[in-house]
């Protein structure tokens, strides 16, 4: 049986942030991230998306500080609500 130093259950917004933060602070530790769904993203996982789904958040208000959701890469302009597919792509 494998022994792990740190385990994160759930690859949603906060699970991904917890895993990244732990890895950055303790790069020598073994880490596993477990997700029940077929894709990461939590609420924004691929199987939960539907046509026209958008977040209540606008560009610049829903991103990790060290990974900005820039308009050129993600196709969302300032003042626009972020589409669900864009959030899924951002998280995965």
UniProtKB/TrEMBL annotation:
It comes from the Eukaryota. The keyword Flavoprotein applies. This is Uncharacterized protein. It comes from Colletotrichum higginsianum (strain IMI 349063) (Crucifer anthracnose fungus). It holds the Pfam family NAD_binding_8. Coiled coil: none annotated. Keywords: FAD, Flavoprotein, Oxidoreductase. The keyword Glycosyltransferase does not apply. GO terms for molecular function: oxidoreductase activity. InterPro entries: FAD/NAD-bd_sf, FMO-like.
């Amino acid at each position: 049986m494998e022994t792990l130093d740190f385990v994160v259950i759930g690859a949603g917004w906060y699970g991904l942030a917890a895993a990244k933060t732990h890895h950055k602070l303790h790069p020598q530790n073994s880490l596993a991230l477990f997700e029940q769904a077929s894709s990461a993203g939590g609420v924004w996982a691929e199987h939960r998306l539907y046509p026209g789904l958008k977040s209540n958040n606008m560009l610049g208000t829903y991103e990790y500080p060290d990974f900005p959701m820039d308009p050129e890469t993600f196709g969302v302009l300032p003042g626009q609500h972020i589409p669900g597919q864009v959030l899924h792509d951002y998280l995965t």
